[in-house]
Design a protein that fits this description.
The protein contains twelve helices and 15 strands. By secondary structure, it is of the alpha/beta class. It has two domains: 4-108, Beta-Lactamase (2-Layer Sandwich); 117-372, Rossmann fold. Strand 4 (80-84) and strand 5 (90-94) form a beta hairpin. Helix 1 runs antiparallel to helix 3 (56-70) and helix 9 (253-265) packs across helix 10.
Length: 373
């Protein structure tokens, strides 16, 4: 394996043509679609950059250095690479023939600024009542799944939510590739290991999940649910490990449950669908839905409580907060705003028993709706 100091110097030299982009804090993603084609994302919007990495051979040289440092095979037999740059930026790369115009790579850069809940409030991604509600849910050890599309801010929100976990609790984090930067001290980070060139010695999410349960976790945080580990998470959530946090790719809250169901079925365990749905509905308490809007802004669009499952109608959910459009001051396109729906969470008795209170805005809106009815 290449020493870190040599790796940093070497990779910086290879990436010289895009060094300015790597140093630009406003750039969140650099997309290289083969030689001479580079796009960058700023504030959620893509634009072509007037730079080039030169030849295909130069890009291959860069990727071989990255793969060697990460200790991961990268050749025709292993044409997909997941790794990190010295500054922590995530790299996803693909070789021809699966990327015919490639090599292709995406560099996801992570902000040096830690996005706190206060900062998310300033950016309009959340509202004070929504933050207070999430604080109560975390304190009461509700199991929360943060869902959304690619680049919708799931990881940033999960990092921010981690600041709400009481300091005396031990948190175990499980990830495919280290991305989470939890805003707390007592954290145990676990990361998967891919197989070597001979297909040996892999350590999967499921392996880490099983090991984590013997590390005395107060909270389990799963960076992203991608496959059969969904079933392991459901089992943990329903067996005394409350307050779990995880992310998953999904577009709407109901899609989140359906996707988790599909992923759990990939776990290879023979389980009746009705039993799986009952466990899933019991395991997941709250879904926080994120989205990237047309103007590039990222915001929370739903905070949804999972009520249960019905044999005929499927999963039962209720939106506690939902985003609504309102006219802008300029009278142009509408502005999305996260507002209470008037629904009081069914877990209110549990919240009260723990000595917490929900923001008054939830009840005020509920009273207005009852008065209007």
């Amino acid at each position: 394996m290449i020493p870190t100091s040599i790796y940093e110097t070497t990779i910086r030299g290879f990436l010289g043509p895009i060094a300015a982009l790597l140093d630009d804090d406003s750039v969140t993603e650099i997309l290289i679609n083969g030689p001479g084609v580079v796009f960058v994302e700023r504030q959620g919007c893509l634009a072509r950059a007037d730079v080039s990495l030169g030849s295909r051979q130069q890009i291959l040289a860069i990727l071989r250095v990255i793969a060697q440092y990460a200790g991961r095979p990268f050749d025709e037999a292993h044409p997909i690479l997941e790794a990190h740059l010295p500054d922590g930026s995530r790299v996803e790369a693909l070789l021809p023939p699966i990327a015919p115009d490639g090599p292709s790579l995406a560099i996801r850069r992570f902000s040096k600024e830690k996005l706190t809940l206060a900062r998310l409030l300033e950016l309009g991604a959340l509202t004070p009542d929504a933050v207070e509600t999430l604080r109560v849910f975390v304190e009461c050890k509700r199991n929360i799944v943060v869902a959304g599309g690619t680049g919708s801010g799931k990881t940033s929100l999960l990092n921010a939510l981690s600041s709400l976990i009481p300091e005396h609790e031990r948190v175990v984090v499980i990830e495919d590739a280290r991305e989470l930067q939890l805003q707390r001290d007592h954290v145990v980070q676990l990361e998967t290991r891919p197989p070597d060139a001979r297909g040996r010695h892999a350590v999967t999410i499921r392996d880490l999940f099983k090991a984590s349960l013997r590390l005395r976790p107060d909270r389990l945080v799963l960076g992203e649910i991608r496959s059969g580990e969904a079933l392991d998470l459901v089992q943990a959530m329903t067996s005394g490990h409350g307050g779990c946090l995880a992310t998953v790719h999904a577009t709407y809250p109901i899609d989140t449950l359906n996707r988790l169901e599909t992923l759990a079925l990939m776990g290879g365990v023979e389980l009746p669908l009705s039993a799986l749905r009952a466990q899933l509905a019991s395991a997941v308490d709250v879904i926080v839905q994120t989205a990237r809007l047309r103007d590039g802004r990222r915001m929370v669009t739903h905070i949804t409580e999972v009520i249960g499952v019905d044999a005929e109608r499927g999963y039962r959910i209720k939106d506690i907060f939902a985003s609504l459009g309102r006219p802008s001051s300029a009278g142009s396109a509408s502005v999305m705003e996260l507002v209470p729906t008037g629904v009081v969470p069914e877990c209110l008795p549990l919240i009260v028993s723990h000595g917490f209170e929900l923001p008054a805005g939830i009840f005020t809106h509920a009273q207005r709706l009852r008065g209007a009815a």
